[in-house]
Amino acid sequence: MRNLSRRAFLAAGTAFAALLALPAWAEMEYKSPNLEEAVQAGDLPPVAERLPENPLVITPRDQPGTQGGTWNHALVGGGSLSMLVRYQGYEPMVRFTPDWSGVTPNVAESFKVNEDSTEYTFTLRKGMKWSDGEPYTTEDVQFWYEDVFQNPELTIGDQAFWYSTDGSIAELEVVDEQTFKVKFAQPNGFFAQQLAWAQQDQITRTPKHYLKQFHIKYNPDANALAKERGYESWVALFQRECGVQQDNDFFQNSNRPTLNAWKFTIAPGEDTERAVAVRNPYYWKVDTEGTQLPYFDQINYQMVGDPEVLLLKTLQGEVDMMDQYIATPANKPVLYDAQESGDFHFYTLKETAANVMVFQLNLNHTDPVKNALYNNRDFRVALSHAIDRQSMIEAVFVGQGAPAQPSIVEGDPLYVERLAKQYTEYDPEKANAILDEILPEKDSEGFRLDSEGRRVTIIFEIDQVRTTFLDMFQLAIPNFRDVGIDAQIRTMDRSLWETRVRHGREFDATAHQFGANSGVAAMLDPRYFVPFNTNALYAQGWALHFNQPDNDAAIEPPEDVKAQQALYKKLLATGDQDKQHEIMLEILNNAADQFLVFGVSLPPDGYGVIKNDMVNTMPVMPNSFGWPTPGPSAPEQFFKN
Fold it and tell me: Which of the residues 241, 307, 473, 488 has the least number of beta carbons within 10 Å of its own beta carbon?
């Protein structure tokens, strides 16, 4: 992501949107041939009546396509459903541009920001509809704001912090059916970018006309309805039907209307072998020739058990596009040799993650002895010195990379050398010396004992589909044991990992990646530098305190972490680029002092594989969940020759 000022970042999208608003589009004749039969049968209104007055015009990347065909995809395990935002679920109010140089109107026809970033005005598309043909208006926005976001019984988690400044929730002002304003008491310099970040724009996901039947405010019998369906109360049923509380829940519902290009007819979880999404007849985008998008009639997802099965299906040409779970350095030679037989080629992923793998001890552990030990900075330093990063890089990443902590990439204006390089030397002698001061006692097998006389055992709980993590742990486990720490690894399905790690407090440790290593992206996702949302797996209680300090499950952080969180709130409140840079550098230097987590290496560029008949895809893309690869490249204009 290029380093741009907020004004330039927003202007990039505004200029792009202006190109689409030329009067020529008003003369366009719309067509949707694959739905014409349904129109003739009286099952659908004509295409011009299904589209808004000013549909979003998408310029195909290579060439205009035709409607038809199936996009063949796959999902691995029960917990990879959050991947769906990458393929068919990225339709926020404003979205990132394909080159990640700005944000551009999307669901919103236009938007503007006042000079001090305290007021954002959005104009919706007149005549825009949900997938069931019902209007999408500011009434839906107001429903989310008043009846979901601000309802104390409906927990919305991380949403609170980007809709607030200095602890004050933004005010929503509905001007008319198409126009609304979000007003902040203090400047909020990143609000538009936050709305564009994956999974962070719930105001495009909450159809009032459908959801109100489950809400006690609109249906006095909502509790009875919930009990009929096996739920304890209306809250549980509403959260399930709404799907915005948990990433995975949003896609496990084939009944809820959507604004997405495809709508599930068989949602994940409704069938054990597959999920199917078909074209949304009311989708609000067209190409430059007036053809209603998407081009593909449907997406078929095969449900596969593990990455090995996914790799086999990809080699056999059964998957049209894939990078997650299989595009590892170890698999690259196999995939390279199979390009002709599998009828696919490679694309490049520009890595934006803060590290290839981040070791995260649970600093909010329910065991007081483990909690105290893991919160000892010197203990984390010792473990960092104990691992042989270069061996991991050689074995797992074929020598690509260099030892580094979770950090900013060198050359970026936010680069802090100390944060990147400290404690990366493989020095078991130094690790042992530090540990001898903290844990001097050992058992008969040479493992260290804690203050209760128990063997110091750390079980790293890992999502089993992350094969590069498993490969790195093959080297890390002996490294830790060499300095007297009984390190173990426990692998599990992603859905169980989400429950145990992302939403639990009893695990010892885990490992993950992502975050961001440069520019505005690092400011939006500083998960390893400040615990601010559920991605801070090492300190879920502290992150909850950041967003909901009155929540019973929140844990008050130590003073230095609270100061770091306050600094991050200050960063979010400013729209001045120089001030943003100054505050972020302070956050990064503080992160070096606190040393909350440790990693292996900054990632080399990655790759993915794509079938040769796929058209309009990007040969080079950022690899990020925030820019949900390939979502901003507009999958609605993908098709097959």
Answer: 488
